[in-house]
Design a protein that fits this description.
By secondary structure, this protein is an all-beta fold. It has one domain (4-60). It is built from no helices and five strands. It has strands spanning 4-8, 15-26, 29-34, 39-50, 55-60. Strands 1-2-3-4-5 form a five-stranded mixed beta barrel. A hairpin with a 4-residue loop joins strand 3 and strand 4 (39-50). The N and C termini lie far apart (70 Å).
Length: 76
């Protein structure tokens, strides 16, 4: 049985997870689960699925954090 492996679409094709049996997309979040129940969640977007070679290619998504400035606290 050939289960899929997921890789990031970057210079070195970084392996994310092997033996993937289930894949779920939720916005920019990709949830992967192996046949053995091991799970992993990554930020990414689908680029390609190659059924012949059982590869899933994901583009990493850079998340930005917005920090709102708060008024400075003063001692009384």
């Amino acid at each position: 049985m050939c289960l899929a492996s997921a890789y990031f679409h970057n210079e070195n094709g970084q392996l994310i997870l092997k033996d993937i049996a289930h894949l779920k997309f939720n916005g920019d979040n990709v949830e992967l689960e192996t046949l053995f129940g091991e799970g992993k969640s990554v930020q990414g977007k689908l680029v390609e699925v190659d059924f012949f070679s059982s590869k899933i290619i994901l583009e990493p998504v850079q998340t930005t954090v917005t920090v709102e400035s708060q008024p400075a606290l003063t001692e009384k």
